[in-house]
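Example 9 (inverse folding). The structure is encoded as follows.
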């Protein structure tokens, strides 16, 4: 029987007939079920904790504020003694200032000078602002009524001693460090940084800036992925490049697994003769659901190598970035102790038209201008300039859709991926 060619499809993004493709949500659910914290705990000084993952609930060692205090510069007194209309109170000698409290007691019907942040002296529970008084001859005059407790802060009204000030798994921000300091912590238990190894594969790639022979291209993925993971707050391990040779790729994976908690590779994730990443993962009996119904990024391998999760990313930089953000980012968050993070998307009007076929979820390079989502002029995965142009992604659903200008679409800014 003569060999017959298949029918011409002329669509490199069409899903092959008879192949079971894994929907994006199913692949994410599979990952979420399997990803658990793999890093240990260490204690670091407060000043070095920004960007680190909080290992345990942070319990307040003291209340904030620790004592009742004044919120303004003014004059303090017992609010119960104040009525309506003009009020004239004698002043006691002395004052209360932040860090220099008044040690005596203020009798009812008397007032004392107080400065912002000062502990309220005994007998004081209400403060009148400087702007609302006149002072002379040892007295202060103002008009009532004044609500009891006005212009003061209660002890522990922000956080009380023994309360959980920050929950475990939080990536600590500068504001978190302020709170931790305020409730008495000078050192914090955090997760050790997740170690991420990045490996490029392919005979065609050479080091950026090196001499490229005919048919060779510069390795654009590795610098992108290394810097991206560093922005995520992870410790990066550069494993360089591996040639299109099964034993070389195996050795590179072995070396990466020995030094890292997760491995990102680019190239070799499809089913061709030189696609060694996916072939090696299948040989080891790792996760085999690597045909993801996703554009860009169809050849995505999800597997385990020597107990270490592997994300076999596509070779095209656009597809590699999209797959990293959609799949590797939440998984690495879970591995790092920060939990599974779902990026926040926003519904905005489209500034483009797009007819999408059913079968795969699509992510378009996008940005917001004048409140509408623009998309890059080309959907080609090799158009690296579109990554610099974009400030986020437009996510189109798995089914068919015909987007017209002004239609609502889901826009996910890159900042939602915590970069």
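The amino acid assigned to each position is listed next.
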């Amino acid at each position: 029987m003569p060999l017959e060619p298949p029918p011409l499809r002329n669509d490199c993004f069409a899903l092959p007939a008879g192949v079971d493709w894994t929907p994006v949500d199913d692949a994410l659910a599979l990952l979420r079920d399997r990803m658990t914290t793999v890093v240990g705990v260490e204690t670091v000084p407060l000043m070095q904790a920004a960007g680190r993952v909080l290992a345990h609930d942070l319990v307040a060692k003291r209340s904030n504020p620790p004592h009742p205090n004044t919120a303004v510069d003014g004059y303090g007194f017992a609010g119960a003694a104040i009525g309506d209309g003009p009020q004239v109170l004698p002043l006691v000698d002395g004052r209360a200032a932040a860090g220099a409290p008044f040690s005596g007691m203020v009798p009812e019907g008397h007032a004392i000078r107080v400065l912002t942040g000062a502990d309220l002296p005994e007998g004081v529970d209400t403060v009148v602002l400087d702007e609302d008084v006149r002072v002379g001859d040892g007295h202060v005059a103002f008009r009532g009524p004044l609500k009891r407790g006005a212009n003061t802060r209660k002890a522990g009204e922000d956080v009380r001693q023994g309360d959980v000030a920050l929950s475990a798994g939080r990536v600590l921000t500068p504001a978190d460090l302020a709170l931790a300091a305020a409730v008495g912590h000078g050192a914090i238990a955090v997760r050790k940084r997740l170690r991420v190894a990045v490996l490029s594969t392919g005979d065609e790639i050479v080091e950026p800036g090196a001499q490229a022979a005919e048919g060779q291209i510069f390795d654009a993925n590795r610098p992108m992925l290394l810097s991206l993971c560093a922005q995520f707050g992870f410790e990066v391990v550069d494993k360089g490049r591996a040639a299109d040779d099964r034993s070389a790729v195996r050795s590179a994976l072995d070396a990466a697994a020995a030094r890292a908690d997760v491995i990102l590779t680019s190239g070799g994730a499809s089913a061709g003769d030189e696609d060694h990443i996916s072939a090696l993962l299948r040989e080891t009996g790792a996760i085999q659901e690597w045909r993801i119904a996703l554009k860009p990024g169809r050849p995505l391998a999800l597997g385990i190598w020597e107990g270490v999760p592997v994300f076999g990313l596509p070779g095209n930089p656009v597809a590699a970035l999209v797959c990293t953000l959609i799949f590797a980012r939440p998984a690495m968050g879970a591995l790092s102790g920060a939990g599974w993070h779902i990026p926040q998307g926003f519904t905005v009007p489209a500034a483009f038209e797009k007819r999408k076929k059913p079968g795969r979820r699509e992510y378009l390079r996008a940005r917001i201008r004048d409140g509408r989502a623009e998309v890059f002029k080309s959907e080609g995965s090799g158009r690296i300039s579109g990554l610099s142009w974009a400030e986020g992604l437009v996510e189109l659903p798995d089914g068919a859709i015909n987007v017209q200008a002004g239609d609502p679409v889901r826009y996910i800014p890159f900042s939602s991926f915590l970069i």
